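Researcher: Next entry in the queue.
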Amino acid sequence: MSRYSAWAVFKNGLSGQKSWERAWRDPEPKTHYDIVIVGAGLHGLATAYYLAKNHGLKNIAVVEKGWLGGGNAGRNTTIVRSNYMMPGNRQFYEHSLELWEELSHELNYNVMFSQRSHVSLLHSPAARDAAARRYNTMRLTGSDGELWSLETLKSEIPHLNYDNARFPIIGAAVQKRAGSARHDAVAWGYARAADQLGVDILQNCEVTSVTRDADKATSIETSRGTIKADKIGFAVAGNTSRLWQMAGLGRLPIETHKLQAFVSEPLKPLLDQVVVFGVGGAHFYISQSDKGGMVFGGDLDWYKSYAQRGNLPIVQDVAECATSIMPCLGRVRLLRHWSGVMDMSMDGSAFICKTPINNLYLNAGWNYGGFKASPASGWYFADLIANDRPHDTIAHMDIKRFERGVMIDERGAGPDPKLHG
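Model: Structure for this entry, 421 residues:
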């Protein structure tokens, strides 16, 4: 398969854009693979790509019940950042941001990563002190971060609600290397790059059961037949609990919830940053897409569900947040909204680990952090599967941390069992 380039664009323009090759194949499933990754979202596709590229492994398949990138990969607000502080998380998300910075060149595909700054609004001296601790930790560990005074914030983003805000703004914590990317482009880029390395991407191939022989998974039953595998990895976001039960492993410390996101009608350039705030029970984030739409979201729907549909109370809540922080959006029309299925872990942090089944591996529990984590998640999950042991960076991201009583509570809010619904 040829590489994309300016010359390729020019040459295909001469033929009316009729000479482009398929971006990836649509193969028939084999009866056996060395490694099968369940889930062709960003984490699954990235895992397959790094298995082939970093570890030179062949005979890999990614199975997807629907179409490639049709789950949470296409149902999020595309924010990329690494402003984490907890040991392990700090290194993990910084590595992910570094991978994002080179991803378009790595994949030979423009993922439209725009490092436009991530601006977290501060509303109290206590919030400013907490942000100073976090951002100093980032700077001391090789990342970037800074605190903006109110005067600096006003000069950079003048149209926020500074005069009559419900929660007065006193400044902001900023990571300038952060930003946003195009979710579809990331999925397509990983799919194309993995396919070039020989990975089979099997769409419309739903897993219906997992066959076990004692402590080993021998095959998966799918809507396209039985597929045997030496190793199996789960990367299915909100559907993790379903597959976990198919494997006969009982219950996971995960609850599945819906998270809505929204986009407005296109506007002229208005916001050149990602702006976030969370105070007084509110949770809100907003940016502007390349097409001009205001992309924004808020908190969970708070009841457990596998449906990819939202509800009106959250629409109202998020719209109120939008107009409270940017009153100029009050007359802007909402174009569409959607819902992703989130797997919420009990401490707000993810799992990349082995399971009680020897050849079954788990990638789950990403809460609000799945999109930004995609490159590093695939990188470390591939390393785990290839070497059958966790990298030091993800050694803490196992299920047994709950047995040890060692939570990874990045939000500083404590564990959340049964709190979400």
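Model: The longest strand covers residues 334-345.
Researcher: Noted, moving on.
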